[in-house]
Amino acid sequence: xxxxxxxxxxxxxxxxFSMSTFNNISLTRTFLSSLCTEFNDKPDSLFFNDGVxxxxxxxxxxxxxxxxxxxxxREYFEAxxxxxxxxxxxxxxxxxxxxxxxxxxxxxxxxxxxEVLHIKLPxxxxxxxxxxxxWRFLSCITKxxxxxxELITKETEFFTAPFEKDxxxxxxVRDKDVFFTASMRSRMAYYILSRAPxxxxxxxxxxxxxxxxxxxxxxxxxxxxxSRFNVESKEEGCPNERFLLYKEWAHPKSxxxxxxxxxxxxxxxEKIGIYFAWLGxxxxxxxxxxxxxxxxxxxxxxxxxxxxxxxxxxDPEIGGKIVMCPQCDKECKYWRLNSTCEASKKLCIFDNFGxxxxxxxxxxxxxxxxxxxxxxxAELEYTWDTVEFLEQEQSPRPEYEAKCIxxxxxxxxxxxxxVPYTACGRCLRLSIGIGTVLFxxxxxxxxxxxxxVYRLAAFFAFSAKLRAQDMKExxxxxxxxxxxxxxxVTASLISFVVIMILNTLYERVAIWITDFGxxxxxxxxxxxxxxxxxxxxxxxxxxxxxxxxxxKRLPSNCGCLIELTTQLSIIMGGKAIWNNIQEVLLPWVKxxxxxxxxxxPSEKVIPRWEQDYRLQSLSKLGLFYEYLEMVIxxxxxxxxxxxxxxxxxxxxxxxxxxxxxDAWKITTQFRRIVPExxxxxxxxxxxLQGIAILAVATNAMIIAFTSDMIPRLVYYxxxxxxxxxxxxxxxxxxxxxxxxxxxxxxxxxxxSRPMKTPYNITTCRYRDFRYAPGHPKEYExxxxxxxxxxxxxxxxxxxxxxxYFTKFILSYVIPDVPYAVKEQxxxxxxxxxxxxxxxxxxxxxxxxxxxxxGIVKFAEVNLTREEMELDF
Length: 872
Known about the structure:
- The strands form 9 sheets. This protein has a 4-stranded antiparallel β-sheet with strand order 2-3-1-8. Strands 4-5 form a two-stranded antiparallel ribbon. Strands 6-7 form a two-stranded antiparallel sheet.
- The protein is elongated.
- Among the domains are: 252-711, no CATH class; 819-871, no CATH class.
- By secondary structure, the chain is of the alpha+beta class.
- The protein is 52% helix and 9% strand.
């Protein structure tokens, strides 16, 4: 890590002087003349050739003499590793083109860097009795949905504390070979590799395996899998954790089983483990939403033939006698209302009172999901020893450290430290970053406008074609294919393509902004989710227009919920299918091509490091794409659920595949991921909370402005009152007629008049609430219209306040950390205080001598004040 302060600078100069002697170092490498013979019997060996030292990391490169500086950097880098305590062993590959450098961390180096990285290790077994599960009486049934306990045994729970090398005797060390797990060793090895220098010229220091990989000095750097995924290793002491993960987690036959999260965390680290824990929890919560959404859909499907408004549209005596106005100028034709009979029935499936109930339910569901996830996350934090994992304990990125050339005084510690740029430079970079974000948001707004323009043009074109009476080939489809539906489907396909293209660009821009401005890593997902949300907002309802005597069409009541539903189903389904194809096919095809090109011996005879080299490496963004895909899906499920109750069902089906696809991918097609520590899901948590708040407003507006629910309610309670005995009767009869205004066809202007009038009519109808011709306020809005507008605004305000109040109550009532976890955390802190700190206090107390006047003086021992303070 970079040094700060004058004392650290002196140490740096001393290291530069000592490192300058490494230029003449030539590492001794062991080349085996008959590699196949050596590894025929032990292809899955995880040790050096002596069979004692464990391999913690692998470096791979091609030994070429064309670039001398690469060879010089490589030798300097490996010499630096040896100087830092690492042990290396080089070996040639089977095809004699590649060289592999095995990296081993001795015990003393492990202890040193475990203390540097604040790794928590066990101090004593957990003595708090765990409470029995409330569902233990169902264990005979639920055990079939959990991984096989005979294969994946439950590990002993320990109280842990940050490791301290000088207090090793207080830690629970049974066997030094397994005290540090393989993921811990790999994490510490990567920490050293990321900070080992490969060139020092004056004040310029170049370091880190990442830069060497980018420049091609090394072809790959990775920790080893412990076995093949489909064959159990026969090596002595091999845990075969990869094989167990594939069999009980990644295999398609295990799709119904719960995930072995503790084994995932142990093998891949906390960052991978917390992702799969969140994805699994989200999927379980989706099951509840999917059941309610499916029930809402079934209710709409069963009532589509009995709803009053659909029966009036399909009735030959009502809808069959209503002639609708053309939907565009000149080319469009008049049409009968009952020609949309099938479309009106389909609309009733999604546009009913069950949709309102489901929208309110989902607003509460999203709150419960976030609150229960916080509780579950708190349990994982304690179980996985990340409770006190603070940002200052997380080491900075090597790319960030390399840019630290300016000095400043830390306001907290008072010590000088290095930073990558001055205050003015930071403001400049911040301004450029914000400007870039605003530019891309404006670009998305431009794409939304373009989609709307396309909708208008396509709607008029489809209206002219699909309403044509002389096109006999379209007669069988006229009841099912409407201009609105055709416009919606084509616009949705265009929106899907635009979203997929722009999302790729956003991700690249986000990476560039993160590196350029050195923002927090959370800036990338925030930018991408903002842009993805904007691009998803191209799901805009088509603009409905009404005829006007002035020649310009007027905006009218939309009633286009079915079009919005169509767009959501196409985009959600298309994204799910495309993402799964990418995640499954691309890694598999790449590995297949690589194996075909190499054409070396099979995995049965080549060593473990060469087997892993043939696999794909994880991208620099790691889990960024996985989180992004799920968060965007979460937005679709919550933001637009009022228009598409089946969204949770589709999301649930997709996630059941997503979990196994991701598990299969990282277990079988990728090299072992470098373990990373993580306390939570990071910047995605506030993004989810923001989506949950926004979802209430979007669903309220969808119900108010794209649904016919509010006009129906206003009609039912205000305009359909008939005397019935001694009381008033409310009915929906006559709603269709009341929702259609009258237009005199003689009022069409010359530029908008239809070319043909097939019916013997003088008036036509259109969707709106305007006065009829001949009225003193003809073609102006009626009182019904203003009642509807007032009802919509009141509905939005009342629904938002009720749901937000309910969300606040639930957030307050449900604690973020379970009581049992709080007890265990307190117990662990107490043990840490007793075992590690009070022992030191006793040692100090022995060196103090109390006197009668109450003043404590030092005993006659050879201790200076500095030594006493250090001991204390």
